[in-house]
Amino acid sequence: MGPVKVALLRAGRSSKIVAHGAGIGFTLDEPSQQSLGIVITSGGRHYCALFGGSIRANQVGRFIAVRAPVPNTCPGG
Question: What is the secondary structure of 17-53 as a DSSP string?
Fold first, then answer.
C-alpha cells in the first residue's frame, strides 16, 4: 500500500490529502516549509494543488495548511 491514506478532491472546492510513511520519498524537515505542491495523475488527467495559505502546523514530519489559494501554475512545472 502506498503512502497516500486519504485523497479527497472536489472540483472548485477544498481538497484534502493525507499521506505518511517511508513511501512518500521526501521529508518535511525544512525549518519553514511554507507550502507543499502536488501533482496528481488520475485517468490520464493531471491535477495540481499548492497547499499553503494559513499554516496550522509546520514542524519536522508534519505540515498542515488551510485556505490555500489556487496556484497560477502547476507546482514543479
Answer: EEE-SGGG-S----TT---EEEEEEETTEEEEEEE-S
H or E element at residue 12: none
Measured distance CA(74)–CA(48) in Å, rounded: 5
- Could you give the number of structural domains in the chain? 1
Q: Is the pTM for the entire model greater than 0.70?
A: no
pLDDT tens readout for residues 19-72:
777 777 777 766 667 777 777 777 887 777 777 778 888 777 777 877 777 778
What residue numbers bound the domain in which 31 lies?
A: 4-66
Q: Is residue 25 part of a domain?
A: yes
Instruction: Judge whether 75 and 38 are in contact, CB under 8 Å.
Output: yes
